[in-house]
């Protein structure tokens, strides 16, 4: 049976969300952030930094562009916050995380290695159903797959130039060449994994046994109900405060606390859930608000230790967990936002890659920055913020430029 709901105001829920999502006390390492949040969404678009870097730069102390990939694959410098360099890719037995798609969607994530058994059923089922993007291999793809796997076994890791084959493939998310389309499917099926990425972010694949530890690959395939529970818990870990579908709630009823968001402009109580392990933190947020304490997001006093990272304005990633649930963002932050990267240009209101602007404990608008790596500049194509927050937008843009190694303007 579910416990009685805890009623909170939007302000109290914001206090909780900022801290629970790592925006008040940053994590010491990429690994610590991944362990807390469950996953980091990966996206290849690089207009002003890639989504995964934009997500982690606000949550990991001293995070540098590319640190997630260095943590996953080991090439170049070591993980942020950890001394020493890593030369070359990690050995399988040293890997603690990898890239793969969520079972219920095509979303690419950085996941902890122990997620592998939860993915095996989905990978096997993809290999048996028809689909141009992730489905079973066609006859010519299956024939080419044998050559690809042989070459990877001899020479991997390699990219889509693994074999010389100019034949076109069916167009599916940019996989215009047959080799690329085949590799993409083999990855979806778990028959190859991303061993590392080159400087441009291009995937280099290898056989699973040369990427993940043997003990991980030998893990028994999880049952459907186990994976459903795992995915629901992953959603809760990622967002910390979220709505749940009926099936999700049934799978994790013993682990969740109902929360009602009431008052302060909400038309009706909004029912969401948090993990029971987060109830104490939620209670602290409520108590701090009721006692009249200034929000940690405003005063720099992080009770419980650790530096406050949210005292200055900052630009968030378009897919940031804080606003991933758009309807909840409207309730908590009175903030309307849609990522318009896939919206036709004529219909865009904010811009191709507009980033939400968080100032203290408020969402105050958005900025659409563009990086000119060759010219060493970060420019702003469009900016729309509430009155009085123009300087916040300028400072947040300058801070992002510094992170990217560019100058603003």
Short overview:
By secondary structure, the protein is α+β, with helices and mostly antiparallel strands.
Strand content: 15-25%
Spatial separation of the terminal alpha carbons: 56 Å
Rg for CA atoms: 22 Å
The helical percent reads 25-40%
Q: List unreliable stretches of 5+ residues.
A: 77-87, 298-309
Structural class: alpha+beta
Q: What's the main sheet like?
A: 5 strands, mixed
Shape: globular
Number of helices: 14
Please tell me the overall pLDDT: 89
- The largest beta-sheet arranges its strands as 9-10-11-12-13
- Oligomeric state of the chains? single chain
| Strand element count | 13
Order of helices and strands: EHHEHHEEHHHEEHHHEEHHEHEEEHE
Detailed description of the structure:
This protein is an alpha+beta fold and 409 residues long. Helix content is 34%, strand content 16%. The protein contains 14 helices and 13 strands. The protein has helices at residues 10-20, 30-37, 51-57, 67-73, 116-126, 139-155, 178-188, 214-217, 224-239, 246-252, 279-290, 296-299, 326-333, 390-404, and strands at 6-8, 39-41, 97-101, 108-112, 193-197, 203-206, 256-261, 270-275, 314-315, 355-359, 362-372, 377-385, 407-408. The strands form 4 sheets. The chain has a 5-stranded mixed beta sheet, with helices on one face. A 3-stranded mixed beta sheet has the order 1-7-8. Strands 2-4-3 form a 3-stranded antiparallel beta sheet. β10 (355-359) and β11 form a beta hairpin. The longest helix has 17 residues, at 139-155. It is globular, with a radius of gyration of 22 Å. It starts with 5 loop residues before the first strand and ends with a strand. Mean pLDDT is 89; it is low at 77-87 and 298-309.
């Amino acid at each position: 049976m579910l416990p009685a709901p805890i009623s909170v105001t939007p302000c109290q829920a914001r206090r909780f969300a900022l801290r629970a999502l790592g925006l008040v006390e940053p994590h010491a390492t990429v690994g610590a952030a991944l362990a807390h949040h469950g996953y980091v969404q990966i996206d290849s678009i690089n207009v002003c930094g890639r989504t995964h870097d934009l997500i982690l730069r606000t949550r990991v102390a001293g995070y540098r562009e590319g640190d997630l990939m260095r943590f996953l694959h080991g090439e170049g410098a070591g993980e942020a916050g950890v001394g020493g360099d890593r030369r070359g890719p990690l050995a399988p037995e040293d890997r603690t995380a990898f890239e793969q798609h969520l079972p219920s969607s095509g979303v690419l994530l950085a996941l902890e290695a122990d997620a592998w058994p939860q993915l095996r059923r989905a990978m096997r089922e993809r290999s048996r159903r028809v689909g141009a993007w992730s489905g079973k291999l066609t006859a010519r793809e299956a024939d080419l797959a044998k050559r690809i796997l042989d070459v990877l076994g001899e020479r991997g890791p390699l990219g889509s130039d693994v074999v010389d084959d100019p034949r076109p493939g069916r167009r599916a998310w940019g996989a215009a060449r047959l080799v690329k389309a085949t590799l993409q499917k083999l990855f979806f099926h778990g028959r190859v994994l991303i061993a590392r990425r080159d400087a441009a972010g291009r995937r280099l694949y290898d056989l699973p046994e040369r990427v993940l530890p043997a003990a991980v690959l030998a893990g028994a395939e999880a049952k459907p109900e186990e994976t459903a529970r795992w995915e629901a818990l992953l959603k809760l870990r990622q967002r910390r405060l979220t709505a749940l579908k009926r099936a999700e709630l049934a799978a994790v009823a013993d682990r969740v606390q109902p929360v009602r968001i009431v008052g302060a402009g909400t038309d009706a109580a909004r029912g969401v859930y948090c993990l029971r392990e987060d109830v104490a933190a939620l209670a602290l947020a409520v108590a701090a608000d009721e006692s009249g304490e200034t929000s940690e997001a405003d005063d720099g006093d992080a009770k419980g230790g650790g530096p406050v990272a949210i005292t200055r304005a900052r630009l968030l990633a378009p897919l940031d967990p804080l606003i991933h649930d758009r309807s909840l963002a409207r309730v908590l932050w009175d903030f309307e936002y849609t990522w318009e990267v896939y919206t036709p240009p004529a219909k865009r209101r904010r811009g191709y890659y507009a980033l939400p602007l968080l100032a203290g404990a408020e969402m105050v608008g958005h900025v659409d920055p563009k990086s000119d790596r060759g010219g060493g500049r970060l420019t702003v194509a469009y900016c729309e913020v509430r009155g009085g927050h123009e300087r916040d937008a300028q400072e947040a843009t300058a801070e992002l430029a510094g992170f990217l190694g560019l100058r603003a303007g």
